[in-house]
Amino acid sequence: MACFCYILKCADGTLYTGWTVNVEKRVAQHNKGLGARYTRMRLPVKLVYVEEQPDKKTAMKRERAIKALPRKKKMQLFM
Questions:
Q1: Which residues pair with 23 in a beta bridge?
Q2: Rounded CA gap, 79 and 6, in Å?
């Protein structure tokens, strides 16, 4: 089953990185305050980057790699 890594831009300008099997549903959850604790206090969020991965393990590994990048490098992914 395909999975996706994604980056959200929060209302305060910060970035949030996660993974999911359904991007649209997950973004909607974040915007309803049902997502991660980090995004609940920074609504609304906007999807700025999506990257398809072949499976959950690969998606989680890529999520960690993206989270380890400095902000400037993350922004280069979608600018």
A1: none
A2: 14
